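Exercise 3.2. Students should predict the tertiary structure of the chain below and write it as structure tokens, then compare their answer with the key that follows.

Predict this chain's 3D structure.
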Amino acid sequence: MKTFSIALWACLAWSAASAQSSVSAPVVLPSSPLTPIASLDVPRYMGTWFEIAKYPNKFQKKCASDTQADYRLQAGGTVQVINRCRKENAETDKAIGEARQTGMATSAKLQVRFAPAWLSWLPSVWGDYWVIDLDSDYQLVAVSEPKRAYLWILSRKPTVSAEAYAALLGRLKVQGFDLSRLELTAHSKPVHP
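Answer key:
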């Protein structure tokens, strides 16, 4: 029953997003450059974010539910990243990394690495983490990278309203994202260390 209600909710959100985006701005072609938000208040962005949906990726294959990220500002301006999820066997999987802003102090372009610190000098261990949509209350965010290969929708709570989700999907469609690739994240309860 829970799976059915999630599927129904996703269909309603998809329908609302499709209807909204058809009357709003034209859709950007995926080959067009992706643009992050104009300004990010990094200290305000810190804290726990729950994954609502994502493009499936190989490094989260073990995750069955309850995916969340904790961001903590560190001395020197970098950010500690702690990603957690629940695996099929109910064990918690955890990855600890570091993020850094690129550009000005308000830049929404960050880079993140999960490789050991001693490898941080290698450019290839850093991946782009761009905040591409963020509500004014810092409660719902979409994160991607320049080629749109990855996409995460995160929220301060494990669930979001259908209206807020549908509106975000409409904005992502306008930015050239393939919404059919999105996979909803199952949540039972927050994951703790």
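Discussion points: Confidence is low (pLDDT under 50) at residues 1-24. Residues 2-23 form the longest helix (22 residues).
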